[in-house]
Amino acid sequence: MKRIRVGDIVLDIELLGKGYLQETIPAYEVPIEGDAHHTIESFMVDEIIVPNEDPRYQEPHKKLYSSENGEVIITFDPKNNHPIQRIEYDYQYRHVQLSFTDRYSQDLAEIEYLWTGILFFEIALLHGYSALHASAIEYGHEAILFSAPSGTGKSTQARLWKTVYPQVETINDDKPLLKVEHGQVYVYGSPWSGKDLVNQNAKVPLKAIVFLRQEGNNTIYPLTTQQKIIELYRNTYRPRISKLAEINLSMMNQILPIVVIISYGCNMTLDAVFTLHNYLYGGTR
Amino acid sequence: MKIKEGYLLREVAGQFLVVPVGNQAISFNGIITLNKTGKVIWEVLQKDTSKATILETLLDRFDVTPEQASQDIDMFLSTLQKHQLLE
């Protein structure tokens, strides 16, 4: 069992897969003293136990069971419909258990990464941290977040900034966390940082959220409040559980009035960096 | 008629938003923004109601003619039906 601290969230975590989180977790490890807020444990089992009651929701190979204490999600093998995965948690996420059969021996680390990511982002919301799908860089002790659907060029913009400004560091290349503290939004790194595992254990004040779209030229587009809300909502982690959805909306309500949020139509040349830098810093630095 | 269970209506930065929760969040992955009239109609539709009741509420709350309010309600209801948001 390892203990990690992300912001002020203290989490004990025990995983089986090799790679992915095993590589990013050490930067967040802290000594085990006292109790953790949450525990996530992964087990390899011979047989997955399926609850007796009717599921609350089902898809072809997945069933969700809920009780007053928590939820159980069972995944079935598409080939023979045998249960192969069980994810169980209480609504405070104090104890999260992931059980897998040996069908997952090859891609266990990846499956664990995906599930623990979802559960961690829900845990984070409970503590007031909202995950935004973005590549977050640190420049001049401030964070700039490039957000967009996958494949738009978030990481590319981050790399271009590093090319122009070698002091730029990536905070998290996939889902940095945002938290409002004393009227300022801070960006936090976390071990869940995407396939390339690029992240640092950092807390940096947020300068701007830049929603990217690919265009031939580089143009900054101001957004209306409604457009900002839609972009933010689309790109944040959206929980199913009502209480967490409330927290998510409340976070948006706090973030919107105090953060620079723009849409940026840009290409993948160094000029994209200069144009944005000019807009954010007025040509200084 | 009534709005389906599983949607949260909240005011965020002065805008009225509806987001799906529970099972609806699995099948509907979006966000609905409402104007003031839409917000009031949505609230009335939290309970089983009729067009006449919605019309009465709009006339009571807004400076609008019955014809205009009736047209607004029809448009709103047809959007809700199109997106299968009504029970």
Search tags:
heterodimer; A: 285 residues; alpha+beta; 9-stranded mixed β-sheet; 8-stranded mixed β-sheet; 17 strands; elongated; B: 87 residues; 3-stranded antiparallel β-sheet; 4 helices; 3 strands; 48% helix; globular
Structure commentary:
Chain A is α+β, with helices and mostly antiparallel strands. In chain A, 25% of the residues lie in helices and 34% in strands. In chain A, β10 (134-139) and β11 (142-147) form a beta hairpin. The longest helix of chain A is centred in the middle third of the chain and has 19 residues, at 108-126. The termini of chain A are far apart. In chain A, 37% of the residues are buried. Chain B is an alpha+beta fold. Chain B has helices at residues 23-27, 36-44, 51-61, 66-82; strands at 7-12, 15-20, 32-34. In chain B, strands 1-2-3 form a 3-stranded antiparallel sheet. In chain B, α2 packs across α3 and α3 crosses α4. Chain B is globular. The model of chain B has no long low-confidence stretch (mean pLDDT 92). Classes of the chains: A alpha+beta (285), B alpha+beta (87). Chain A binds chain B through residues 56-57, 59, 225-226, 228-230, 233-234, 238-242, 245-246, 249, 252-253, 256-257, and chain B through 8, 10-15, 17, 19, 21-23, 25-26, 29, 31, 33.
Per-chain topology:
The complex is a heterodimer of chains A (285) and B (87).
Chain A: E1 2-6, E2 9-14, H1 21-24, E3 38-44, E4 57-59, E5 62-66, E6 70-76, E7 83-90, E8 95-100, H2 108-126, E9 130-131, E10 134-139, E11 142-147, H3 154-164, E12 169-172, E13 177-181, E14 184-188, E15 203-214, E16 219-222, H4 225-235, H5 242-255, E17 260-266, H6 270-281
Parallel strand pairs in A: 2-3, 3-8, 11-15, 15-17
Antiparallel strand pairs in A: 1-2, 4-5, 5-6, 6-7, 7-8, 9-13, 10-11, 10-12, 13-14, 14-15, 16-17
Chain B: E1 7-12, E2 15-20, H1 23-27, E3 32-34, H2 36-44, H3 51-61, H4 66-82
Antiparallel strand pairs in B: 1-2, 2-3
